[in-house]
Each structure stands twice: as C-alpha cells, then as structure tokens.
Amino acid sequence: MPSFNLKINQPCGEDFNKFTPTEKGGFCQSCQKEVIDFTNMSESEIIEYIQASTKKTCGRFKSSQLKHYHIPVQSSRFGKFRSCLTFAVISFLSILNTEAKTNEISKKPKVELQEEKKISTNLETTTEKYTITGRVMESSGEGAIGVNVVLKGTIQGTATDFDGNFSLTLDKPKGILVFSGIGYQTQEIEYDSNQLTNLTVYIDADIKGLLTVGEVNTSLLYSSKKSIWQRIKDFF
C-alpha cells in the first residue's frame, strides 16, 4: 500500500496567530507565503491535499498529525474479483488446515483428550475477563486518534482508532487506565467491574510543542513491503 511520512524539517519561528487570515490558513509576511492550517483537517483530507498539491507547501500541524500516512488504493471491478478469488483460496487453505488438525486430534488417545478437556475447563472457570470499551475525546469534541490506553503498572494496552474508540480486555475487575499520546497530556482514570462500557474520557492538548509551522516534507514517499498474502493476490 502506498504511504508517506509527513514531517517538517525546520519549524518556522513565526507566530501563526499574527498572520493575515486567508481562506485556507494565514499569509506570512516574513516569507511571503500562504501557510495552510491543517489542524482542523481529517486524515483523509490531509492525504487528499498533499496528493493534489503540485508545489511546496507551508503548513501548520498538530504534533499528532506529523506521522506516517497510508494512501487508500481505489479498487476496480477486476480488483474486487481478484480479492474475492483470493479470499476463496485462503478459505480453502484454512479448511485444509482445519481438517488436518481435526485428523491429528482424532488420533490422540481418549485419556489424553479427556485430560486436555479437563485442564481447559478449569482455566475457563478460574479466569474471568473484563472488556472495557469507550471513546477518548479532544476538547473540541472530536475523537482523539492514536491515544495509548494502558493498565497502570502493566504492559497490557491498546490504542484508539480513527474515531477515538478503544476496546481493552483485562483480567482485573478494577484498576487505573493511563491515557497518553503525542500532543496530549497524560490522563489517569479509575475503572471497576460496575462500569466497563461506553466510557467517555476527555484528554487535554499538550499546549507546549503542540503546534508546528513550517515547510511540509513528504519526500519519503514509498510503497511498503508486500506480505505473503499480498503476493498471493498479485499472482491472481
């Protein structure tokens, strides 16, 4: 999948708030250029603008927006057919693998199978899981993307999706969740087994170093290395 890294090599020291307002941002009198304000753009809008731009762009970004972007690939009718064919091949291979495992299990002595079933049953009855779901919001009311959600004192965690939603399964009925990310202040929230779903967490922006203004650099445009399944798809 095509992708690129968005960064600013040399941040500008000018104050964006003092620029003359324009339709897309502000005009810098120092460098005589329009500085595009990307801070309120979605990820898809940023990708669309960068792809359509034919000249050097100066922009204002949140620190969280200076990252790696994947460019969506438009699928054709043939591409859809190829995807369906690939899915059929993968499904067929999965069926063969399942049958092989079933045959292997059927060859095991009955005593051994009974012991495995007993151990499995004991584990299921002694280990209870707690799934916590919710959404992390910015002060603007938008979902916070890429915020880390970690159980304090452990490495168990996840990250919010493009809408700020998260889902985390833990084996503790209560504890403290730590919310952190680039451009955000770290937030800690207690949870317990009585409140595990539809949590709403507001995370404040880290004003210090949050906004970056400067010339956009997307020179690291490249295509990521294909996986084995992508190679199978190309074969068809």
Describe the structure.
By secondary structure, the chain is an alpha+beta fold. It has three domains: 2-73 and 210-230, no CATH class; 78-126; 130-202, Immunoglobulin-like, CATH 2.60.40. It contains four helices and 16 strands. The chain has helices spanning 43-52, 77-106, 110-126, 228-235, and strands at residues 2-5, 7-8, 20-21, 25-28, 33-37, 58-62, 68-70, 130-137, 148-151, 157-159, 165-170, 175-180, 187-191, 199-202, 211-217, 222-223. It has a six-stranded mixed β-sheet with strand order 2-15-6-5-4-3, with no helix packed on it. A hairpin with a 6-residue loop joins strand 12 and strand 13 (187-191). The longest helix has 30 residues, at 77-106. Mean pLDDT is 77; it is low at 220-224.
Question: What is the strand and helix layout of this fold?
Answer:
Layout: E1 2-5, E2 7-8, E3 20-21, E4 25-28, E5 33-37, H1 43-52, E6 58-62, E7 68-70, H2 77-106, H3 110-126, E8 130-137, E9 148-151, E10 157-159, E11 165-170, E12 175-180, E13 187-191, E14 199-202, E15 211-217, E16 222-223, H4 228-235
Parallel strand pairs: 5-6, 8-14
Antiparallel strand pairs: 1-7, 1-16, 2-15, 3-4, 4-5, 6-15, 8-11, 9-10, 9-12, 12-13
